[in-house]
Amino acid sequence: MIRKLFIAFVTSLSFSAVQAQATQEQPGADLIVFNAKIFTGNQAQPEASALAVKKGRIYSVGSDVEILGLKNSNTEIIDARSRRLIPGIVDAHIHVLNDLAYNYNVRWDGVPTLREALTMLNEQATRTPEGQWVKVIGGWSPYQFEENRFPTLDELREAVPDRPMIVQYAYNQAFLNKQAMEALGVGTDRFPKVPDTEFEKDSHGNPTGVVHGYTWLFLALEAMVPQPTFDEQVSSLIYSIHGLNQFGVTSIIDNGGRWPYPEAQARVAVLARDNRLNVRMPFVDLQLGDGGPVNMVDLEIEAITRTAPISPGQNLHPTLAHGHEYQGAGEVLSGEVHDHENFDRPAVIIGPDKMRRFVEQDVKKLVQRRIPFRMHVSYNENISPFLDALEKVNATIPLDGLKWSLEHAETISPENIARVKKLGGGIALDAKMALHGDGFIKTYNREKALQTPRLRKLVDSGMPLAMTTDAFRAATFNPWVGISWMVSGKSVSGSEILAEDNRLSRTEALKLFTSGAAWFMNAEAELGIIAPGNLADFSVLDRDYFTVPEDQVSSISSILTIMDGKVVYGAQDFSALSPKLPDILPAWSPGKYFGSYHGKK
After folding, report:
1. Taking a C-beta distance cutoff of 8 angstroms, is the pair 32, 77 a contact?
2. Nearest to residue 254, comparing CAs of 89, 405, 471?
3. For the whole model, what pTM was predicted?
4. For 373, how many CA atoms within 13 A lie in the half-sphere containing its CB?
5. Mind listing the pLDDT tens digit for each residue in 387-442?
6. DSSP state at residue 55
7. Can you tell me the distance from the alpha carbon of 342 to that of 334, in angstroms, rounded to the nearest whole number?
8. How would you classify the pairing of strands 165-169 and 173-176?
């Protein structure tokens, strides 16, 4: 009798499990978006009006009638209202984890006039508590302003009269008020002794507050100002990602910074745990050490083999595909051969023998261990000896498909483009010329600017190629500013900055932020196009990228961003679908009042 009851009980449980599975696995889509103008990026099916999503992947693409026929009682259905839908944007080079004080900063990205920018500073100065700073850290350009100039020190002092203030322009220069200079110890031994730092002086030989330098100076200054708490860092991560989602960005590659692995990853883990990481976020790692000369490659190998063992391609996110994968070392592999890219100064040329020794001694270690790497190298004069040495390494220890890339490569020559391709590498360009190209013209000349970078030759080469933002400090995080520059040839000032024969079509430009960028994530079979089986990342735009006038391209934004089949951002018609953000930390954050980008809160 007991045996019969046990069998009946087990049978009942099995039936219930099968029934539950049948309910869970009922045919049909989880999400359908219809009545859209879909740019698929898929040559086999270039256009469609509807798509269906199931389990975070695109299930089917086709006409409204075809796709709506796949709905079931649980399907979420979204009417795109005849708007343009594109694949999710992939930013293959950005520094989110370098900006864990994001919420402390006033963002001047997209602000149209210097007058308004100064007003923002003045308003924030009244809210910033004693002991904190008023900061603008990158993302803007004087050429974006109607006034077409930098702020003066007098204007900045008037805007921020009683708090320390730093206004940083890319990694080129910063403006400090009196309180900031005193806090940093300008003119004393407390101020960091970083090579190539130059203070402007007044007629009496005293520092004015305008300081010029390179990357290391500004990283040092950032470490000397008040630091956010752990919770504020997590909040900064949430809000910086939200800013990216506003422009249709669904995947990024974090390219390292002052917060190394595994320390920085603890902040991402909080979002992963709560299923709130609203962007795919593979990362490469940069180990700066604790100050002083270090071998960054050795520190990287130590970090991933002993400190917190991890393998290339290993995903730290428990559920999200490409959620937080380790993708190797970079972008800085050695401080001694870092050529920066400050277009207000002549190119930093590394001694060729020094570059070759670095590759043959240190990059070789990465190749031996099959650790992918990314190399920041801006100027062709430095690319040549780097490739000389890498070809030599490849002759004895074949790269053989190991993922590697040059980052930036602004002035790369056609000959070196061919060499990178032959070695199986990629090039991750960036759109800094859109913001800073006017400065490049002053330093060099217009003729050189018109071919910087060689977009047409790079695209026509067929090599792995992406356009990136290199945000949040070197340039703005808005990818549409870069797309506009590639298409129109104009910088944010309206100046012609790319020759007509060096511009791209709208389709080509978009692909560098979608399917082209997917290669750098090791996800070219899953991301970058709208096709069945691909990850369900896409956005609906506020205007049709393919038909709006050129001068409107830089103003495009997303009004519906979907990542992993879930809405991560909604505005206008879709604002009700947008997930609610937690309260921003700290409560006085400039982002609470100004948002992350001009006109967006």
Report:
1. yes
2. 471
3. 0.95
4. 24
5. 999 999 999 999 999 999 999 999 999 999 999 999 999 999 999 999 999 999 99
6. T
7. 18
8. antiparallel
